[in-house]
């Protein structure tokens, strides 16, 4: 089965999705209560952010027990019930696997702390007498010192010690964790930090390009990223997955810029798919988009892997806000530039149709379908992202894209749950609640529901090929067989529609009876030939 080649996958950031027990934190019960919404939205699978036992120093990406559910989210039984319920609704479940690092509360790290330098317990991590010059992805040094003077490596927060993937016990443990969740019926794994598990032997210094400000994109050949040996791990995991048939999948979180190196992770005996961050980061500019699309298709074709199309996730500024900026390319650490949210919303609507029309699978981050913007004015005391603390507030961090969803009602917490919400929701989200948007045929939610439904029924969409059509500058137009056309207008003026009957448009088409219709600026349309 190859459902993943054209699936629409919805990312559930669990603590902000829906709260079932009234403690202000989203949980499994809340998710279960909204499965109908997700089925009606028209997605095929859910990717659930880490739900394991965790001190939540990094929203659960600091795992203390990979085989148990954090009490804030529920119990293992709740998770098993959720998997079963989702399957009954025709929704597959992808869980988030965090293999690069554990929590400092994980029993292995606690044992390492109690053990001597050079002891086997310390071998499972990267302990050294002297640190090298690596910086944490979250800001500040990538090394912290323990009581006896040794240092340990953490590419992220100090509470997230990196595992030593040269250690056979680490490898065996993750095979076992995979089987644990496969035995519980999950349909796949999203692999956190997938390109960084293996570090260059000896942990050599980097070439000194750090001034305390980490970037998302390293140069090729970095000692902590995209090492050739990392592929062995995925070949090994693929064999484990194979024990369970051929319809379970791996989705890699791979921030590797070079399309060819990126595609190496998607060779037939490695991961099935990976997030297309080149598309996510791309500015709302026709030539940049065209070139990212072309590069994506070419690189994936070589390894026969389906591309993915991603606009947002829980780590980046929401795209309604990004696309509202003069410079709409994704950049970290930008919070003080103005954004025209009306423009951003128009473009986000068009981008939704573009991403759902391209060949491959598509991701929807919770709240994309409501057109939520980034929230900047959170009280500092409530910010939880370690990035905020580790950069002394120079980077506001990622809490602003993780604000709990507004489901209904006129005031916070907008039916997120019976209690409050762990981060405050803006007052103007009363107009963006799911309930309000369901009653409005022109809303973002109605557009997503309609487009996902058409995407499912339209034979041309999902996996397959596309052909660019000749179009005027700053117009993206392509065909897919049989008989489907998508056009996106990135000019500042209306453009004539191509042949065909409009199926859905992100904005009202211009024209009256007898007058050829036109597509307004910042809009997209799908058409069927004939
Ligand atoms: C990527 C995850 O998406 C992000 O949220 C997390 O902070 C880092 N990996 C570290 O696990």
UniProtKB/TrEMBL annotation:
Residues in coiled coil: none
Gene3D superfamilies, A to Z: Glycosidases, Oligo-1,6-glucosidase, Domain 2
Keywords: Hydrolase
Residue span(s) of domain Glycosyl hydrolase family 13 catalytic: 11-402
Listed GO MF terms: hydrolase activity
Matches recorded under SMART domains: Aamy (SM00642)
Entry's family note: Belongs to the glycosyl hydrolase 13 family.
Name of the protein this chain belongs to: Alpha-amylase family glycosyl hydrolase
Protein species of origin: Glycomyces rhizosphaerae
